[in-house]
Amino acid sequence: MILKSVIAVMALGTLSWIGLVGASPASESQGTVTLTGSFDVVPSGRIGTNIGDEAPNIVMNNPKGKEMSLSDLRGSIVLIDFWASWCGPCRRENVNVVKAYDKYKKAKFKNADGFEIFSVSLDSKISSWESAIKKDGLNWDYHVSDLKKWQNEAAAMYGVSSIPMSFLIDENGIVVAKDLRGFELHRNIDQHVKSLK
Length: 197
Prior knowledge:
The chain is of the alpha+beta class.
């Protein structure tokens, strides 16, 4: 018992030392630490939407009325994608998001079980939302909305004021990147990939 306590104290001391050595002044003020080497992000220990925060859970219904939860995807790298059928830039970016899904859905990751997309729509009509999912080929399972458009509760929780907006979270639910478009999306996911085969 004493040995376990000593080991725990030593581990916490080591983590604290690593955090103090690797932190930049900007990241310290936000409660996150960015390190070089094999560690990219040290969790801040709080729920939020900054890099290093644990992403807030989202629980909403899919177009068929089935409740879906972001926390169900724990263990996977997840792209949380805020979009809407009526948003032109979102529909154009959907081409890139589909390419990312097709590229990474069967990839082998360093620490994660796989890759998923959790799409949050700011639509107000199910028919428009479903039509856009089909037309754009958004062939993943996790599509949610509360049909409140800009009053969407998840968008408010994540501080989303414009779309498209995305958050990449790791297998532990920690935000590792955000507002990823085009090649930046692929580049950030690549950091977690062991093999694309």
